[in-house]
Amino acid sequence: MLLIAVSKGIPPYNGQPGCKTEEELQVKYYRFITNKTLYWKCKEMGKPAVVERCPNGQGYLDPVKSCVDFRQWYWTPLISQARPPSEPDYQQDPYQGPYGSQGYYGPYGQYGPYGQYGPYGPYGKYGPYGPHGP
């Protein structure tokens, strides 16, 4: 079934509400189905929800409609979660723009979180003298 959806260009359901009803504006926050650190937020009637990200070390917990520390976070089955009352006319990808919300290389830039030389710096794992010292 998923193969058919992908081949037809129909994006998989990601939990995004359409924000077309008063109920959705009152509930305000909805679970992002495929990423536990993201959630949907209805800000304005008639406009699709926007993606929000929990702070580092936290995940969105739908039963409390809030971000919680991962020590308190637990998985909730999708079957127990009702779909939002409305859906947008199209499913929005969480990252807008041609390269996502952080640009072409993501939040850490071209070389990743450790910079150009990696976690050990410009001399590598063993420093300037190699594995056997000076």
* Shape by Cα distribution: elongated
Largest sheet: 3 strands, antiparallel
Q: Helix coverage percent of residues?
A: under 10%
Q: For the residues shown, what is the average pLDDT?
A: 76
Question: How many beta-strand runs?
Answer: 5
Distance between the termini: 62 Å
The total of helices stands at: 2
Provide the structure class: mainly beta
Order of helices and strands: HHEEEEE
Q: Nearest-angstrom radius of gyration?
A: 20 Å
Count of all domains: 1
Low-confidence stretches: 1-7
Determine the strand fraction and express it as a percent band: 5-15%
Strand order of the largest sheet: 1-2-3
Key descriptive features of the protein:
two-stranded antiparallel ribbon, elongated, 14% strand, 134 residues, disordered N terminus, 2 helices, mainly beta, three-stranded antiparallel β-sheet
Overview of this structure, please?
With 134 residues, the protein is mainly beta. The chain has one domain. 9% of the residues lie in helices and 14% in strands. The chain is built from two helices and five strands. It has helices spanning 2-7, 22-27; strands spanning 29-31, 38-41, 50-53, 58-61, 66-69. The strands form two sheets. The protein has a three-stranded antiparallel sheet. The chain is elongated. The N and C termini lie far apart (62 Å). The model is unreliable at 1-7 (pLDDT under 50).
What secondary-structure arrangement, pairings included, does this model have?
Elements: H1 2-7, H2 22-27, E1 29-31, E2 38-41, E3 50-53, E4 58-61, E5 66-69
Antiparallel strand pairs: 1-2, 2-3, 4-5
